[in-house]
Design brief:
With about 170 residues, this protein is mainly β. It has two helices and 13 strands; from the N terminus they run αββαβββββββββββ.
Length: about 170
């Protein structure tokens, strides 16, 4: 239930969105959010997409293919904005994100990384279509320096542009 405190395994929160909103970490202190295996989606547990992340947050799933964030082709999966730094995404599968939900200009169906530095480790980003040739299917970075480790970005596309869909980098150094 999202009425739980989320401070222990005995009182888990139902959605990642609520966990991030309830987060009360001090600047410079990393907040660790551990996700159990399962499907996190609007239909399954009421998850809201896109999920917006903050500085000093680590979101760690149980394993690739076991902890799945599914945006149901209604919106992007994750937004990392406003100098979101010291962020770790690990052991997750991101599926069915779609860039059409936000309409903010170029975006990605999977991860949108704007002015942020993030470490992405042991992720799969798949089946996240984009709709704009300036955006991306899997991941878009703008003025960012992501570290990408052991991550598969596949089966993403941009409508009408079969040669794109993985990662689009603007003023970035992945």
């Amino acid at each position: 239930s999202n009425n739980n405190s989320g401070l222990s395994f005995a009182e888990p929160l139902k959605t990642l969105d609520v966990a991030l909103k309830k987060a009360n970490n001090s600047p410079g202190d990393t907040l660790y959010i551990y996700l159990d295996e399962g499907l996190y989606s609007k239909e399954e547990n009421g998850e809201k997409f896109p999920i917006y992340c903050d500085d000093y947050v680590s979101i760690i799933g149980s394993d690739i293919g076991q902890t799945i964030l599914d945006a149901n082709n209604e919106n992007s999966v994750l937004y990392l904005t406003n100098s979101c730094d010291h962020l770790l995404l690990k052991n997750l599968t991101l599926i069915n994100g779609c860039s059409i939900g936000e309409n903010r200009g170029p975006s990605a169906g999977g991860i949108n990384c704007w002015d942020s530095d993030v470490t992405i480790e042991n992720l799969v980003i798949t089946q996240c279509p984009g709709t704009d040739m300036d955006g991306a299917g899997g991941m878009l970075t703008y003025n960012s320096n992501p570290t990408i480790i052991n991550t598969e970005i596949s089966y993403n596309n941009i409508d009408g542009y079969s040669q794109t869909g993985g990662i689009s980098c603007y003023k970035s150094n992945p």
